[in-house]
């Protein structure tokens, strides 16, 4: 069957792509699994507003009724927000089954990259990517996001890998897979809730135009993989490193004691960290997402 039987672009996104206007993809797992209702819906709609204010068309991605959707209506976003954890957290492995069964799915970073690439969208804004989990030497728990970055030509703008992960091994994995990792105005990998991690980056770029030029060059030479742009959380929302690291350690220990693994571990840890920090981590999470949308819109506008 033809791809058009499964891929649905909103009228706004379709028109923008045909006219060569800048478009920014956004994920939907942050709506269903990342935050409580109604903050999740408010955040998603604000992301779309910020994207438009910065000169780009937002394309929030999800699987609705067995269709890969690039660009959602406010009603669809509200539906995902209200359904929350009832909606399947969809990564690459889930897409064929969700489509064939006509089901709904909230797209992770990996799945959103796939939808974006199929739609012809080159830039994607998210909060933080998945990565190599702590203890992966024995569990082999490595996010599909990293594999997707190695093979799908989409530039992902994030605040680094989530600090609940093993950041050093995540960087090593990306290097092995040949994924360019760029620090936007930083030579150090941001750690999601904090601006620094202690891990140095090969590339520091100060101007979104230069990032856009790298994307264009990658397309010109037929580069197969994606690109990761790490954008530090705004200074005023950056959390105290000792406080957040203790919260993460406590949450990780509780997850281990309760046998929580796989795709359930990230939402569990983020919820625990939110409770431990009295909600400050959620406020920081929202701020860094908005910051990434602004940068992604600027990059897309320079393509």
List the helices and strands and how they pair.
Blueprint lengths: L6 E3 L1 H8 L4 E4 L2 H4 L6 H15 L3 E8 L2 E4 L3 H10 L4 E3 L4 H6 L4 E3 L1 H11 L3 E3 L10 H4 L4 H8 L3 E4 L8 H10 L4 E4 L18 E3 L2 H13 L6 E4 L10 H17 L7 H12 L3 H22 L2
Parallel strand pairs: 1-4, 2-3, 2-7, 5-6, 7-8, 8-11, 9-10, 9-11
Antiparallel strand pairs: 3-4
Helix pairs in contact: 3-4, 3-13, 6-8, 10-13, 11-12
Structural class call reads alpha/beta
Tally of strands: 11
Q: Over the alpha carbons, how many angstroms does the gyration radius reach?
A: 18 Å
Mind describing the biggest β-sheet? Answer: 9 strands, mixed
DSSP helical segment count: 13
| Low-confidence runs of at least 5 consecutive residues | none
* C-alpha termini separation: 32 Å
Q: Approximately what portion of the residues adopt beta-strand conformation?
A: 5-15%
Element-level helix/strand string: EHEHHEEHEHEHEHHEHEEHEHHH
The gross shape turns out to be globular
Adjacency order of strands in the biggest sheet: 1-4-3-2-7-8-11-9-10
Q: Kindly state the percentage of residues in helix.
A: 40-55%
Mean pLDDT: 92
Task: Supply the key terms.
single chain; 303 residues; alpha/beta; nine-stranded mixed beta sheet; two-stranded parallel ribbon; 11 strands
Structure description:
Helix 3 packs antiparallel against helix 4 (74-83). It is globular and about 50 Å long. The chain has a 9-stranded mixed beta sheet with strand order 1-4-3-2-7-8-11-9-10, sandwiched between helices. A two-stranded parallel ribbon has the order 5-6. It has helices spanning 11-18, 29-32, 39-53, 74-83, 95-100, 109-119, 136-139, 144-151, 167-176, 208-220, 241-257, 265-276, 280-301, and strands at residues 7-9, 23-26, 57-64, 67-70, 88-90, 105-107, 123-125, 155-158, 181-184, 203-205, 227-230. Helix content is 46%, strand content 14%. It has 303 residues and is of the alpha/beta class. The longest helix has 22 residues, at 280-301. The model has no long low-confidence stretch (mean pLDDT 92). It is built from 13 helices and 11 strands.
